[in-house]
User: What shape does this take?
Amino acid sequence: MTKTFLPSALPRVASDGRALARDFGTKGGYLATLPPAWTPEYMLLSTSWVNSLVQGPVSLDLPGNLKDQPLIVRSSIVGETIWDRGTFLSLPFHEPPDEDTIKKAVVRIREHAKSIRPDAEVAIILQRFLPSCTKGTLGNLNSLSRTREHWSKFTEIEGYNSAPDRFNSQRDAPAQPQAALVSSVQKPIDRVFASACRWLIDHFSPVLRRDRMLLEWAEADGRLYILQCDLDEDNAEGVDPVDLPIYSKLNVPDRLPVLLKEAAGDNIETWDKLKILDELSIDYSPLPQKLYVLPYYDAITLLSESGQPDKLVAEFELFFDSMAVIRVSRRAGADKTTNLPCTSSCLDASSALGWIREQLDAHKLTGGDPKDLAFILHKYIGARSGAWALYDPDSPYIQVHANWGLPDSLQFYPYDAWDVHTITEEITAYPSYKSHFLWPDKAGKWTFMQIRNSIGRHQCLRQNEILEIASKTNTIGAKLGKRIAVMWFAGVELAGGGKVCLPWYRTYEYSTPDLDSALGQDHVIVPMRGPDDLPVVRSVIATLPSGKKVAMDIQPSEHLVRDPSFLEEIIAVAQSSGSSVIYSGSPLSHPYFQLHGKVPVYLRLHRKSFRTRGRIKYHKLVRDRIPEKIRSKRERVVFANLKPSEISQLLVGKLIEESQELLAAEGQDATAEELADVFEVLRGIMHQAGVDEKKVLEIADAKRAKVGGFDDGVFLLETSLPRPGEPTMENRDVNFSALVGEEYSGDRVRVPFSLLGSLGNSRERVFRVPGSDKGIRLSAGRDGFELSVEQLEHQLEITFPDDDLLPED
Assistant: This one.
């Protein structure tokens, strides 16, 4: 039996959307749960109806409200997700189509879907078409909003979105589902949509546990309409960067090169790149990553001699495997040349030699002197994240910007930001939704990878990495005595075990972002992924209504990230057409410096961290000399001296705080530093109690001699009187997670102290409230624990009546 669906006067319950989607596709299923008063008139044709049409004649009885109307025939695919938007075909008809035209459109849509996804089950939405209207999209997707109540509304102009208008729906009363959506002077369009969005959150969230969505909207006939609703979900192609293997670990080869030269001694003072790295080396010598030098004139000689190129390839294979990275460096003190060549992926030995030949040939054409340039070579540095950090001698704060993968990810894609107070080590975080990052595959090819939607807002640096980068950037800046931006590899894995954050470049070229201007509603956003999009920009400019401008949203493909000519072309088009640029990357990275001052640049991420800081409340116990250090940085500081009894209470809390930081430490140096902080808190407790430190150590040694320490990890499980013949000692194999987990008993939950230690890895735990579907989430923050109540998932019992399913003859 084939089926169609017609909406009734009231919307279906949200759970029906899942059931309807099995027959009418995802879009059709959730459209059926929207209030019919909010949507243009429509009819759904099931997958079985579509399949029957292909097999032979099938009747189509349009309802009266769709007869003699312009229609749009929309695809609705079973299992389709929001990540498939734009993949499948929809066909609009500006004039009322007859039955035969509709059926031909259905067949064409089905064939198109099958060509993309052979197993696609295709259903159809027949919807009244609104040809002359204002339309756009409206969403609170995880990629658009930090919370479900913040919405971004885009208006479509010439096929492209305008700059978004944003509103909050938290304080709006839910719209009445029986009433049409109509704006007025008293209730403008944003407030009408806010009420509708409030209703939609209440509609979907309790039943489906989903409250993020993207809506297509239109304004016509004096009303506002919702044309389609897509619920947010995870992307199948997305990855968790933490799960990706790091193929190249940091090591220092024992063997010496024959044709290459090590980066040591006079070489460091000779070549600009090596001199920069030497400036950044504040706590290690030699560098933990071995670098090699091949001056241009040496390379020219080697490549001209018989047999030497093969020996050079063999040496590349020995030191770099298939992950050679090469950049050109100028001689230290020579006239600065921007954008010197560097590889845009890891190279195998033969490709590395070929790249060197190409650079030598190109340089020869310029007539330049080869003695002023050298190739700097090293094995790819595998890092979990890349970062830039800004030191300003007039500020007590270090700005840190980071994204997953290579530091080049920060050039054009969103990133996380932190302000780190260098004296108190207080961190203020500004995480963002990160959609992509640059990562090498096993063959060393750099590619932009998509991040899984559900973790797009997870911070890409650990707390100890943020503090390490900030502290060392502060030391480097103080050493050099001027404002400086430092590039970092974070989470670099050492071949011998452990991790390190490695500074790799520095620049004094930093442009202060212009934060007083924002992208206005008069801008039309045109994506800019490569040179082929430049003609599109020119054509859009030519057709724009009066008063509208183009903003080029730069999101280049991986092979263009290090191509300066691409930016130069964008600048030329922007200058000649009066267009602007939307920049998603960090303003600490070089592309922003290249763009700033040449064209209007709008930052996608407006950070409070860029602005003058206001008052910050700490309310925490700090070391005795911290206020004086803060004042030395020209900051006003307010503090209080507490009574001894009050200090003792706070020191116990401080011990828990420092212990949590100890759990997050990685590597011996970081662990030693955190242990020193724990020990200092213990010293403070001893001082307040009037107990001598020497006496404490003597008692500790005596107890250790008597009953041992904690070296062997002995975990006492239980004791009892032994039965006859039963051994008096038993060493069991146990599951660690069970040992440190909570215990439920009746209406109580027991949380052992040991569980607080396990929070060092996950940083949070959810406890079920006995007898309810609620849970308590315990999260470990830097300055305390946070408790939040949340709704737990539960299995839904879905029933759905067939009142609105009309059998076809």
